[in-house]
Amino acid sequence: LRMHKSFFGWIRSRHLLYQTVAAWVQSGAIDILEMPDYQGFAAVWPALRIPIVTRLHGSATYFAVEMGKKPPRPPFLLERAALRRSDFLCSCSSYTAERTRQLFRLREREIRVLYNPILVTPNISEAPRSRYQVIFSGTLTPKKGIISLIRAWPSVLQRHLKAQLHVFGKAGRTDSGAPMEEFLVSCLPFNVRHTVHFHGHVEAKRLRSALQSGAVAVFPSYSEAFALAPMEAMAEGCPTIYSRRASGTELIRHGHNGLLIDPDDPADIANSISEVLQNPSFANAIGEAGRTHIESYFSLSALLPKNIDFYQDCIHSFQEQKFGSATAAGRVV
User: Fold this and answer.
1) Cα torsion through 68, 70, 74, 76, rounded to 10
2) Separation of alpha carbons 119 and 96, rounded Å
């Protein structure tokens, strides 16, 4: 559905979205509807004969507060109304669930935690890893901690002269509006700029290849709901360094299947990268433990049944609450 371009076009667009979904419900085409928490699309929707689930993955309000900013009032009101209107809530992490509960005063609402899954490839490359190739992937924004990584990089090079930093991801802008890539280059001393390579947005196959050959992947994020990038690195057996903020501790156990760092501390970032680069046996151990952890707890095969069970529970609970009994078996297709 295209967004209307007029001044109040977003209202017309949201109404059209509701009408479309309501028609599907009336025809019996769907049994459950899931919405994102971002910008509260279902904020003023009337009652439907099916349950609405909102999956918490980081609303506009959530990320604004996480980055120390004042959230815009209109998105906050829409997001709060949509969350309160939802029949059921689930979240991609425990951290995001509790933070959202606090921000929107959801009191004792039940929020089921369903972690993000990834598709784990059955086999990974057995080719030897590069001793000095450091990987970052993600949109180049302050939230992802790329500025902190760039500031830590000269310290890494002082100890590992052959180190090379490969940055994958779409270039964003700084808070002042300047192109992020230009700003990042300007933060580097002139004599080390040749060691940092910006690849832009690449296909998944290209990124997987880099993670399969890299010595370490680094993600010093300031705020995440439950990030895919570190999971993708771990799934490829790449030793992974992640942020201890937000949901970082729900993915990595420090020193066992990865390392956790403070994104505000470039020395901590540099020391952690150096620890992996100078100790291949340690790097191999946390890389293997990381892949095993992803396969066991965060793979699509592990989490798909939990999602289906959650949807079925929502359908039956909704029918019992609204109609007195589970009048239909409900299906998830």
Assistant:
1) 50
2) 22
Q: Over the Cα atoms of the chain, what is R_g?
A: 22
Over the chain (333 residues), the average pLDDT of each successive run of 10 is 83 92 97 96 93 97 94 94 97 97 94 96 80 96 95 98 97 84 96 97 95 97 96 97 97 98 97 97 97 96 97 96 61 46
291/318 Cα distance (integer angstroms)? 38
Phi, psi angle pair for 4, to nearest 5°: -70, 140
What is the C-alpha separation between 118 and 129, in angstroms, rounded?
23
Distance of alpha carbon 87 from the chain centroid: 24
Closest CA to 220 of 307, 134, 125: 134
| Angle CA 115–117–121, to nearest 5 | 155
In what order do the strands lie in the sheet containing 240-243? Answer: 196-200, 164-168, 133-137, 216-219, 240-243, 259-261
Q: Token pair for residue 83?
A: 């969350």
Q: Is the dihedral of CA 98, 104, 110, 113 positive or negative?
A: negative
Task: Please count the other Cβ atoms lying within 10 Å of the Cβ belonging to residue 214.
Answer: 24
Q: Residue type for 106, please?
A: L
Q: How far is CA 50 from CA 9, 34, 98, 322, in A?
A: 27, 11, 26, 9
